[in-house]
Amino acid sequence: MIALLLPLTLHAKWGWTSAPVLALFTVSIISFAAFVIREKNVPEPLIDLNLLHRNPQFALGNLAALLNYMSIYAVGLLTSVWLQLVQGLSAKYAGWIMLGQPVVQSLLSPVAGRLSDHIGTRFLTFIGMSMTSLGMFLLACFAQGMSFAAIIAALAVVGIGMASFSAPNSSSVMGSVGRHQLGLAGAFLGTMRVAGMTLSVAILGGLAASHLGVGGWQSLLKYGSGGSGADAFVWGYRAAMSTGAVFALLGAFACLIKPRHNDSM
To answer: Which of 146, 157, 153, 141 has the alpha carbon at shortest distance from 83?
Structure first.
C-alpha cells in the first residue's frame, strides 16, 4: 500500500514516467501478487479470499465501500482548501459552509439504517452512491463566482448520499457471512474504509495538485486567491471532483448488481 500511495501522491512532483514512480508501482504490483499467493497457500490465512470469489454480496459490498470512500474522503480536505485559498474565506466561515455535508449526514443516517431493515439494502445503497456522484459533479462545476448557497447545497447532496449508503451497506456486508465470520467481515470492511480514505487523498489530492507545477502548493499557500496558483488549483479541483464522481458511479453500479440474497439481514 505504501508503494502504491507514494507515487499517486507525489506524481505531480516526480513525473509519471520517473524512475521512483515506476519502481514503486512495480514493487506494489509484485507485493500484492505475493500476498495473494501466500494467502491462498497457508492453512490459516490473514484474509479468507474465498469470501471474495464465493460470496458476491460480500465482495461487491466491500468494493462499493472502497469506491465510496475513494470518492468522498478528499471532498472535505480539498473543498476547505478551495474555500480558503481560492475564495479567500477565513477558516471560520469555511468551516460553517463545510457543515452542509456532516449535518445532513448525521440527521439522515439513522433514518436510512431503519429504512434498510424494511426495504432491504440494495436500493438505498444504489441511491446513496448515485446522490454522492451527483453532489460531486455539482462540486466539479465550481467557479470562483459561485454562490455559497450553491456550495452548501452541493455538499448537502453529498451528505444525503453518504447517509443513504453507509449504514445499509455495512448491514449488507455483515449480513452476508455466518456468525463465526463476523469479526473477519468487520475487519475487512474497516480495511476497505481506511484504504479508500487513503487512496482518495492520494488520487484526488494528486489530481488537485496536478496543474500547480513545481512549487505550486507553496505559491498557493503564500499568495492564496491573489496568486497564479489559484486558477491552477481550480482546474485541479474540478478534475478531482469529476474523478470522485466517476468512482461513486462505479460504486452505484456495484450496488445495483449485488445479489438480493440475505438483503434484508
So the answer is: 146
Question: pTM for the whole thing?
Answer: 0.83
Q: How far, in Å, CA of 206 to CA of 227, rounded?
A: 20
pLDDT in tens, 140-181: 887 666 788 888 999 999 999 999 998 888 888 888 888 888
The pLDDT tens digits for 227-253 are 566 777 788 889 999 999 999 999 999
Class of domain 50-256: mainly alpha
Return d(Cα 191, Cα 31) in angstroms, integer: 17
**What does residue 57 show for φ and ψ, rounded to 5 degrees?**
-65, -45
Residue ranges covered by each domain of the chain: 1-46, 50-256
In whole angstroms, give the CA distance from residue 154 to residue 138.
6
Q: Cβ atoms within 10 A of the Cβ of 207, count? A: 24
Tell me the CA distances in angstroms from 265 to 18, 60, 122, 256, one per residue in order: 49, 16, 12, 17
